[in-house]
Amino acid sequence: MITLKSEREIEEMRASGAIIAGMHKGLRDIIKPGISSWEIETFSRKYIESHGGIAEQIGFEGYKYATCVSINDEICHAFPRKGLILKDNDLVKVDTVVSLHGAMSDSCWSYVVGESTPEIDKLMAVTHKALYLGIDQAVIGNRIGDIGNAIQTYTEDQMGYGDVREFVGHGIGPTMHESPSVPHYGQAGKGLRLKEGMTITIEPMINVGGWESESDDPNGWTARTADGSLSCQYEHVIVITKDGPKILTSQDPEFDAKYL
Asked: Which superkingdom is the protein from (predicted)?
């Protein structure tokens, strides 16, 4: 079921999005060589709850944590781990969902630990740009395929990276995952037509190597690149309005000025 949000519901989601954005900004000072990925979980959960939110991922289909903390070739859904110590050149993706009085927000952000490398810098820049190329297509009258095609054309055809197929964006609010699915690949002009009031996530997952993934971890959740290459992800929740797409999880009002 696709729900079209009222102005009141959108503002409630924006307040939820502000919590998740603040959490991500705080992680910029937390993520450094020598900490464990569990410390990311601890900080994130405390931040969410101290700001009145609920870490909505806890208990979702049996998931036990407030965050997914995926590192290097892990694409998504990796557990935070007490024994996994971060080091220079690690590429970390932190994904979480926040509920504030029932209003949902969902955002993943990527961080490099300590010193970076040219390969990581390029992958992060390409993935971040791909996110915004997708957002630019989220306008009334366009179709779901326009979003995916913009991302795929840039990441695969222009940059030669792998655009993950198995995991896609989605509608959000009042439940965590709802229709429509929002693939980050596809044909322009195809798929569901976008309408005012729709709230969706756009969350490209881009690999240095091929797009294929595998889920071979005993925990039953973690997905990683099939070829062992690095993977990066950025995600925003956006609402489709008569004035264009508006980001509800913005961390940078200056950069996102046209989307606020």
From this structure: Bacteria
77 has binding-site annotation:
yes
Q: Residues 109-164: pLDDT tens digits?
A: 999 999 999 999 999 999 999 999 999 999 999 999 999 999 999 999 999 999 99
- 88-92 own/partner pairs: CB under 8 Å, 24+ apart: 88/33, 88/113, 88/114, 88/115, 89/113, 89/114, 89/115, 89/116, 89/117, 89/120, 90/114, 91/120, 91/123, 91/124, 91/230, 91/231, 91/232, 92/31, 92/37, 92/40
**Is 136 annotated as ligand-binding?**
no
Flag whether 243 is marked binding: no
Distance CA(124)–CA(122), nearest Å, equals 5
Cα(239)–Cα(52) distance, integer angstroms: 23
User: What's the confidence (pLDDT) of residue 35?
Assistant: 98
**What backbone torsions phi and psi does residue 139 show, to the nearest 5 degrees?**
-125, 155
Contact 67, 31 (CB under 8 A): no
Per the annotation, does 61 bind a ligand? no
Residue 68: both structure tokens together: 């997914």
CA dist 195 and 229 (Å) reads 37
Domain ranges of the chain: 7-259
Is 235 annotated to bind a ligand? Reply is yes
0.70 cut: is pTM over it? yes
| Residue 95 annotated as binding site | yes
Residue 58 burial class via C-beta count within 10 angstroms: exposed 0-12, middle 13-18, buried 19 and up: middle
| Domain 7-259 indexed as CATH 1.10.10.10 | no
